[in-house]
Specification:
Elements: H1 3-13, E1 16-17, H2 24-28, H3 32-54, H4 59-75, E2 80-83, H5 86-90, E3 96-99, H6 105-114, E4 120-125, H7 134-140, E5 144-146, H8 151-167, E6 171-174, E7 184-185, H9 192-200, E8 204-210, E9 232-236, H10 247-263, E10 268-269
Parallel strand pairs: 2-9, 3-6, 3-8, 4-5, 4-6, 7-10
Antiparallel strand pairs: 1-2, 8-9
Helix pairs in contact: 3-4, 3-7, 4-6, 8-9
Length: about 270
């Protein structure tokens, strides 16, 4: 399946599901899922990182690289279910996507699901832009970088740079949690995405994600264990307009994510503990 065929699938079915078969090696060779996953991810980013250094990286190449990352997941025995893309197919123009954040999978797979509908960029922590290879990709694609040292300054960057991207017709992906977590804590899910959408005058789209197929590494956060037995879910909600101060929209986003995560067996915390 190439990127053209994949775009046709999600355009007609408004979703995607990994075929009901698991690779033989992933089932029977110890350590194979981690090896093949990281090898294919590294190859995809190396190719696009070099393209970024040469100035030839564009959204079409990024979409293909993202699809390669999805195939890396499936070759490691991972099973994806993507649903809810109907709202993107009927909406015209940029959006602000608001999602929970579990692992690196959402960053590398979401482009393959959103780019067929509209250009998209991400809000990332600034240190990622200085990583070898992956940083070259993020710099070439002009991601919005925040430093996470001064919340007020980060808010200013997101609102100004986010609005600038949206005015150019580009959607923005926001992860409002302070850090990745396999637990969804409502109290740590800020209103940054809604504030950006309100300022830019565009709707928000909630995305509920379960991506604990990829675990957090003990020494390097981004290189952790792979759990093929854990299903992966990407579920999109319909576009939600911002009315008034945006509190109703924020509540709708939180409820959408919390309800879906609960149905997938993910812990949801609604009160401080």
């Amino acid at each position: 399946m190439d990127h053209t065929q994949f775009k046709q699938i999600i355009a007609t079915k408004h979703g995607y599901r990994t075929p009901d078969r698991r690779p033989l090696l992933a089932r029977h060779v110890p350590g194979w899922p981690g090896y093949i996953f990281y090898a294919r991810i590294a190859l995809a980013f190396l190719k696009e990182g070099l393209a970024g250094r040469r100035g030839t990286l564009n959204n079409e190449r990024w979409l293909r690289a993202s699809l390669s990352c999805m195939k890396a997941v499936e070759s490691a025995g991972g099973r994806l279910t993507v649903s809810g893309l109907e709202g993107l197919s009927t909406h015209k123009g940029p959006l602000v996507f608001i999602a929970n954040h579990m692992s690196i999978l959402e960053t590398v797979i979401l482009p393959s699901l959103t780019l067929p509908y509209n250009d998209v960029t991400f809000i990332i922590k600034d240190e990622l832009r200085h990583y070898p290879v992956i940083g070259w990709v993020m710099q070439a694609l002009d991601f919005i970088a925040v430093h996470r040292k001064n919340p007020r300054e980060d808010l200013k960057i997101v609102l100004n740079e986010g609005q600038r991207r949206i005015q150019k017709g580009c959607s923005v992906v926001v992860f409002p949690q302070a850090t990745r977590s396999t637990v969804f804590d409502v109290n740590n899910f800020n209103t940054l995405g809604v504030k950006l959408a309100r300022k830019a005058g565009v709707p928000v789209v909630p995305i509920a994600l379960k991506t604990d197929f990829h675990g957090t590494g003990r020494w390097l956060k981004d290189i952790g264990p792979i759990y093929p037995e854990r299903p992966i879910y990407f579920k999109f909600g319909n576009p939600i307009p911002i009315v008034g101060n945006g509190q109703a929209a924020h509540q709708s986003v939180v409820e959408f994510i919390a309800e879906n995560l609960s149905s997938w067996g993910v812990e949801v915390r609604t009160h401080s503990v």
